[in-house]
Amino acid sequence: MKYRLLHAVCISLLLTSLPSWAQWLAPEHQSHPLVGKLWYSADDRFTDIDELIDSLPSGSWLLMGELHDNPDHHQLQTQMIEALAAQSRLGSVAFEMATSEMQRELDAWLGRGQEVTPEDLGWSQGWGWSRYEAQVRAALDHAVAVIGADLPRDAQRSAYQTGAPEGILDHAHSEFMKDLLFSSHCEQLPREHLDNMLQVQLARDQHMAQRMTQYRVSDKVNVFIAGAIHTHHDLGVPRWMPASIPVKVLLLSALSESTNAQTYLPLSYPGSPLAQSSADILWFTPANAPQDYCAAFK
């Protein structure tokens, strides 16, 4: 009991000190005035990790949207898992990076996170183990369950051919997502394939929402780790979650020059039927050095 209390205090002290934390890994904007700060979008105010965790209702899902190549986003995910565990509030942890076909392996290694290897889990080489090792180990050690949330490859191919099981959301969402898919593929994807690609994206979000609904622990806080777009209230998984399940979206936001927190909040797509913002909380981090991922196609 004394150890658990001490561990909780240490985690809390570590997280609340993040604005001046010296261990940032991404090189850009480490001294930015917003770095390490948490910001509520609804009432335009800053908060701290203790208030955030205290505000998360039992049975909720906390969606942590990342940039896949930002090491500070990965650090903060691990620390959030450990902070909730230290308060005995951690429920399930779901990963976009693991498919539902991996569930048997994830179940088998529950409680043995420090021993597991990527080969034990059948971890995809497409999701670099070095990026997600700490989060997966912490989740296996502390969570009630660790969930492979994503749609398996065979089912993704089926969705490409026959469409997402639950269809589309609205025309404006579809058009926005197709533009996003086109730009994210360096404008190299043939436009005639965009409708099919959209169906894969929708099928993945629908499947992840189903998995999260199925494995939600009703008396604890559940955590979902995924790329940012999958976590947006207006674009991704939250659109397919039952309204009865509380969902909080925490976007891990890499900083640029602006010191105005509001400018980092992604705008909802034109015509969105939702009144709420795309994210509830932004957690500001340093950024990687600028890189043109499409340079090879120019």
Automatic annotation (TrEMBL):
What InterPro entries has UniProt attached to this entry? Answer: Cofac_haem-bd_dom, Fe3_uptake_reg_CjrA_prd
Q: Does the keyword Signal apply?
A: yes
> Could you say which residues form the signal peptide?
1-22
- Alphabetical list of Gene3D superfamilies matching this protein: 3.40.50.11550
Give the domain of life: Bacteria
Keywords tagged on the record:
Signal
One protein family per Pfam: Cofac_haem_bdg
Q: Where is the Haem-binding uptake Tiki superfamily ChaN domain?
A: 53-240
Its recorded name reads Haem-binding uptake Tiki superfamily ChaN domain-containing protein
